[in-house]
Every structure is written in C-alpha cells, then in structure tokens.
Amino acid sequence: MLTTAQKTRLFFVVMGFLMITCLLWGRLFWLQVLHPDHWLTIARRQHFQMLELLPVRGDILDRNGKPLAVSIRLTSVFANPRHVKDPQRIARRLAPVLNQPVDELLAKLSNKERGFVWLARRIPNQTASLIRRMRLPGVDLVMEPRRVYPQGYLASHVIGCTDMDTVGLEGLELAYNQILRGEPGWRWMARDARRRSVGAWEAPAVAPRDGLHLVLTVDSTIQFFAEQELERAFEERNAKGGCVVVMDPFTGEVLALANRPTFDPNLFSKADADHRRNRAVTDMFEPGSVFKVITAATALGKGVVRPTDRFFCENGEFPIPGGHILHDHMPHGWLTFRQVITNSSNIGTAKVAMRLGPASLYQGIKAFGFGMPTGVGLPGEVAGIAKTPMEWSKTSITAIPMGQEVTVTAMQLAQAISVVANGGVLMKPYIIKEIRDPSGALVHSSRPEAVRRVIPSAVAAELKEILAGVVEEGTGKMAAVPGYRSAGKTGTAQKIEPTGGYSHSKFMASFIGFVPVEKPRLTIVVVLDEPRPVYYGGVVAAPVFKKVAADTLGYLQVPYQSQHFMMARSDE
Amino acid sequence: MIRSFFSVLTVTTVFCLGYVQQRVMLVEDGYRVERLRQLKDELLDQHRVLHYNVLTLRSPVILSKRLERRDIQLNPPQQIEVLRAEAIQSPVSTQRAQASGRPMWLQLARKAATSILGINRQAQAKPAHEE
Fold first, then answer.
1. Inside any domain, residue B99
2. Active site residues of A
3. Is position B68 within any domain?
4. Structural domain total, chain B
5. DSSP assignment, residue A65?
6. Cα–Cα distance between A395 and A124 in angstroms, integer?
7. What's the CATH number for A220-571?
8. Which of A188, A196, A326, A506 has its CA 20 to 30 A from that of A224?
9. What is the ipTM of this complex?
10. Do A554 and B78 make contact, defined as CB atoms within 8 angstroms?
11. pLDDT tens digits along A503-556
C-alpha cells in the first residue's frame, strides 16, 4: 500500500511524463500535419534530383541489316574542384591513367571558381573501372553517348557524321537528325546523406523514346566493290577526285555511292572539309560526250532520226556560227546515226541536234531530269544548269548536245541512263528504304516512284543496242564485262579554266552504262576528276565500270549469258 | 485509466517503430534497385561496345587494311573460277565386292550401308555457271 507521499511523487512523475509525451506528440503533429509542405520541400531539394534519361540514337543499316552507324556509351571523367581537398595528389594519381600531363590536370582541379570541369571524355572501359576503384573525392564518372561507324569509311559520304554531342553534322545523320535522335525522358532520383542513389519508385518518370533506325537501299558489299575500284583508279590515275554511283534502273534504289577523296567518320574532326563533300550530288560538271545519250534518245524519241540515217561528219572539221570550228577526235566521213554514237562524233551529234531543234532538245534535257535536283534525299544536292533556249548562244546548238554549256551531277547521269536501261521511264532515285522503330517494327517504307515516261520503250530498245555497240566496237571497249553484254557511253570533257575558256590539260573522264543489256540489273556511273597523264573516259573510267559490274553481278549471282562469256573469254 | 493510456501508448509506439522499420527496408531495397539498375545499364553498354567490336572485326574495310599491312593480296574469284563439289556414287566399292566372291546377302548389305552412310563416295567438280 502506497503512502500519501509516494502517491504524490508518483502523480508528479506520471504528469511530468505525460506532459513531455504530449509536447512531443504535439510537436510531431505540428510538423507532420500542420506544416508538412515546408519540410517536404526542403527534404525534396536535398534528397531528390531530376535525372535526364538520354535516348539511344537510332542505327543506320544497309539494305541487309548490316549496321553502318551505331551508338555506344562511354565513360567521361569530371571533377568538382570545390570538393577536391588535395588536387596535387589526385592529379599525380590520374595523370598516368588518363595519359595527361600532371600540370594540366592540376590546373583544372585547382580552379575553385568552377564547380564542374571535364578531365577526360569518352575513355576506354578499363580506364574508367580503374578510376572508379580509386574512389577519389571530388572526382566522378558519367556515361556519355558516342556515335561510331564500324565500317570505317564505307559509304561515309552517304551516312555523314555527328559531333561530340551526337548531333548530325553531314549526310543522312544531318538530314534525318530529328528521326534518329529520339526524345529524352526523365525520372526523379533520391540521394541519401552520402549522395548514394536510392531508387525512388514512387516518383513519376517518363521513359526516353529511342531514335528510329534508318535502313538504306545501299548494299555494303556492292559499296565495298565500288569503293575499292574507285580507290584503285583514284590512286593509279593521280586523279583529283572521283565518284561512282550504282543504281537499280528499274526501282531507282541507290545500291552504292562512293566518293574520293574520302574520310573516316570516326575521325571526322581530323578530316578535311573537302574530303567530306559528297561529290556525286554536290559537284556539278560539264559531262562531255556522255550527254550524247540524251541527244540521241531525244532525237530518236521525237522521230527526227533513225539508226540507219547517215550524216556527213566533215572529215573531222566543221565550221559553226561564230567563226568556230567543231572538231572530232578522229576524222570521219559518212556515218550512220548508230556510228555517230559508237564513235562519239561531235560533228555528227551536232547535226542531229540541228535537225532536232533547240526547243525539242531542251524539252528532252528537262524530261531526263537535268536542271533540277533528283530528290534522292541527300543534303547539299544541286540542280545543275540547263539553260533555256532563250539563254542559248549561237554555238549552244552544237555545244549542248555534246555535253558543254550544261552542268550535271553524277546522280543525275545515273538517273538519266537508267531511263534507257529500264525501257524509257524516269525513276526517282532514293536512298532510304525503310524506317523502323527500336523494336524493329516498320514505321515507313519507300516505294519506287516513276516520275514520267521520257521515251517510248521501242526507242529505249533501239538506243540500248546502239550503246551496246559503243562497248562492243566503239570507244567503250574497256567496259566490256566478261560473260555479260554491257552498254554505255564514254566521256572526256574539258574543264573550264578559272580565267575562262576550256582547258587543254584538265578533263573530267566518265563512263555511264548498264549491264546486262537484255535485262539490266545495274546502272553504273563512274566519274574521275582530272586524271593524269591519261584522261580519256574510255581508258580510265570504263575499266572501273567493268570491275564494279563484274564483282557485283557475281555477288548478285546473275547468270552468265554464256555466248558472250565465250566471246569475251576468246578475246582475253 | 492510466493502464489503458499506457496500453494505447505502447501499441502506438510499436506501430510507429514498425512503420519506421518498413521505411528503412524500403530505402535498403531502393539501394538494391539502384545498384541493379546501374548494373543493367553497365551490361547494356558493354553489350553495345562488344557488338560494335564484332562489327568492326567483320568489316571488309578493316579486314582489307589488315591484309594490306601484311602484304596479302586477295581478289574475289571470277565466276568461272568457282567450282562446286558434288557427291556421286562411286562404282568402285560394288565392283570390288563382286570381284572378291562374297555372298550376295553381304554384298547387298554393304551396298545399302554405302548408300545410307555415304562411304566411298567420290566428289565430282562441276562448274557453277552450268546450272
């Protein structure tokens, strides 16, 4: 039994305990229920951080799914100099690992005015692991995306390149940057007192949308053939530049597009701007004799000539208005229209054009797609120059038919010769076959687009035989592909000097053609800029056509046309 | 009354402790989730880098550069240079059996085994382009 004094003491103890408890609970109620927002805001600021989730840039693939451009993530090292207590020690430890001078690192780490400095960007994984294990205070690592091109310089002008932040700079990387880059996401990340990440799963988050993949019409094997042969010719002929375009004449798909000089997009910052130019679409030039195909097609299509019509080629010298004399590279007398083309007679072609007339010739030039971009989808494409008859001079009727006073691109030539190859239809060239999402589902598919019929199919068939004659008995003998019948036209065009007038030492050598003649699978255009010392299209460009065609037809397993194989074999 | 108060207090305290323990476990799970997320990201990055390395090794451009450095010239074969080997039945094995005078049942069994197992077949080269 408790005494009165004991009861009193117990009462006061209990009351004291109750008061303290009530105070504590009251304080808790005041903090948690009456004023939660204030403390929540402070806590969120300390503990939570919004993290941007970078999307993965879409791949660029060839028509068979082989990657030409992919994205990887590499580690970059940064430091917060304000948190670095001993910059000297850290600089000495990092210098051999990062392969940088100690002084340079020390300068960065000692700069207390800055809260963030890069020490090294996109370092190898082994180096990153080593630095991570060192646990240096104030030094941290972050993953950064990097665009890499596993095929090196293959199709570099088509693919283009990106900058340090994987933003497209050239080629398809630039033209389709919006599609390739995707959309970033974000999430809230919680950090504890030691700045360690804690999964904040109750926090809202938006997943990043990765970029879409581009599937090209380019076949990397055919591209490799074209690059190899162009490289060989470029080196052997001491050329200033060159390009090869391989196309499917019936669909307009660009199977290969190679340029020289070239560059490795993995090392784009070290590449000359001149090397990064996609000459096949950005460079226009006077095509020379290859343009006679257009004149011939237009004349046949309008019905002003027949293959058997005869033209007197003035024994190689033909006076034209303006006091000039038009020359043939070899004197000829009477030639049939077919022979005019196979022997590439300038005089014969001029006479055909005179019979055709300026308006019809110009109509034909425009119908073949000259004077406007092809719309292939590569950035920087130029339209070329095709003057209207109102702007022609007195000599234009003799100059334009043989490829002077008109400028074209290699892509336009490929599109034009494809008209003859496919039976008379102008097909729009294209380079993007499909666009797919990251899971592989099809988003967009390109279809062959016929722009217009240019010449009747009968005329195209006639012209095919005439161009086959160029290879079999004319100036293009070096373009003959063993086992197949090929057709085409050679060109050796004088370049214009900067001071005006045509050069006698600088030429554009070209060959445009298709193979096999009966059912063409390939259209190939070869252009070499200033080859020397030999500069004839039939000697420097035609062999490139032959080798690219032979390799590609073998790869595509196109059956030999055995008769012609035997003929070609017996010629060797 | 005091007893009830202390009972309520005790129960409330136990619940609060339980809640705090739950939060601590959640935070620990959060650490684990973050670690696994980082591990997943690292593995994905490694996979991409390895994929890129494989592509580079397979690249014809890189291969041709390596061959050039070692002075090895390789040209793609012409179609006429490609021969396909096709297996045909060899008459040799059956003829040998007949000449040795073995019993018929043994000869038949041997013939059956030869055709099933492909023993003693001779390869015959056929030019690919004749197909």
1. yes
2. 289
3. no
4. 2
5. S
6. 64
7. 3.40.710.10
8. A506
9. 0.73
10. yes
11. 888 999 999 999 999 999 999 999 999 999 999 999 999 999 999 999 999 999
